[in-house]
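agent> Task received from the user: take the single chain below, predict its 3D structure, and emit structure tokens. No templates, no multimer pairing.
agent> Plan: (1) validate residues, (2) run structure prediction, (3) serialize to tokens, (4) report one or two observations.
agent> Step 1 OK, no nonstandard residues flagged.
tool_call: predict_structure(input=
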Amino acid sequence: MAKLLFVVMSDPSSLSESIKAAHAFHYAVELSQKGNEVLVYLDGLGTKIPISESPYKGLRPAFDEVVKRGLLLGACGYCASPPHLNIRDRLKVKLLGDEHDHYAFQDLVEKGFQLVLT
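)
tool_result: status=success, residues=118
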């Protein structure tokens, strides 16, 4: 079985980017249900997904399913911090990294995870 980390960087304010993110969430859930080890990480503008309204109404249910199934690793603390997107205090998800450093995924790569960027 595969070990996959979906890194979702899609901007939730864009229709096309929201659809891309929702599909990544659907794939993560489906692959997990088939026995693969799957995690999802929000990075860049993707960190806004938990707190943003999207023009694509399917984004929220897809994200909520990832959370419900325990697949959400967390969100980028660097991107969410005040010097960057400044949304850290509004996020109710685990943050990895801080305003000085991105989370580098080294621990997951060493465990055999492959990164899927969306």
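agent> Step 4: summary for the user.
The first strand starts at residue 3 and ends at 8.
agent> Done.
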